[in-house]
Amino acid sequence: FLLTAPVLFTLGALLLVVTYPFDRDRRLLHSLVCRWCYGLWLHASPGWRTRIEGRERIPPGPCVMVVNHQSAADILAVMGLFHPYKFVAKASLFSLPLVGWMMTLLAYVPIVRGSSTAMNQLLDPCRRWLRRGMPVLIFPEGTYSKGGQLLPFKRGAFQLALEEHVPVVPVVVEGTPGLLDGDGPWMSPTASIRVRVLPALPPESFGPDSQALATQVRTLFEQTLAKTG
């Protein structure tokens, strides 16, 4: 990472300068970062195995992708979807050298956890991206779960889908704590990671209550993880 991250940032900055006039959504930059993070960093060790299943289930156009959260490696894993999206992340990450700078170039969405304005920090920029046709990707637990147990899902992602009348796409990630526990820093020489895109939930199937929708989707995650746990 220390050797290659400066190269990625330099290439990304140059690509943004060249493509910005015709790619204001930064889709090409996002594609570069996805292929670099997933193809290089997540396959840096021959002992690391990653499977991505169901990419074809992601609908075209705007949607809210929701992902369970167990480790910082989840971010690398979902890059393997090779699909454009704006990632919602805690604001402190944007201040990190290289990583945070690149997230700023990508126009990802920062959010301050626990603040009184957290919901608006999430909803307002995500609404704008969805209305431009860009999916958003959110970890509805808000932080890492431990031992494979799901935390309660916050309702923000689901309120967003309800208000904007876009599909919810559940993405189940497994095995990332075997590579990196939480924020690390120590990484295991062997790991088996699986990323599965479940069938999208169309907005016609939603009820009027965002918390009820959050509970419904969390139950779907529980059932999916239980089948492989």
Question: How does this model look, in words?
Answer:
There is one protein chain. The protein has 229 residues and is of the alpha/beta class. It is globular and about 50 Å long. The relative contact order is 0.17. The chain has seven helices and seven strands. Helix 4 links the parallel strand 3 and strand 4. Helix 5 packs parallel to helix 6 and helix 6 crosses helix 7.
* Residue share in helix: 25-40%
How would you characterize the largest beta sheet? Answer: 7 strands, mixed
Shape: globular
Total E-strand runs: 7
β content, as a range? 15-25%
What is the terminal separation in angstroms?
31 Å
What is the chains' assembly state?
single chain
Helix-strand sequence: HHEEHEHEHEHEEH
Q: Give the structural class.
A: alpha/beta
* Gyration radius from CA atoms, angstroms: 17 Å
Q: Which whole number gives the mean pLDDT?
A: 92
**Cross-sheet strand order for the largest sheet:** 1-7-6-2-5-3-4
Tally of DSSP helical segments:
7
List the helices and strands and how they pair.
Elements (H helix, E strand, L loop, with lengths): L4 H15 L7 H13 L8 E6 L10 E4 L5 H7 L6 E5 L8 H7 L3 E3 L6 H14 L4 E3 L17 H9 L3 E7 L16 E7 L12 H19 L1
Parallel strand pairs: 1-7, 2-5, 2-6, 3-4, 3-5
Antiparallel strand pairs: 6-7
Helix pairs in contact: 1-2, 1-4, 2-3, 5-6, 6-7
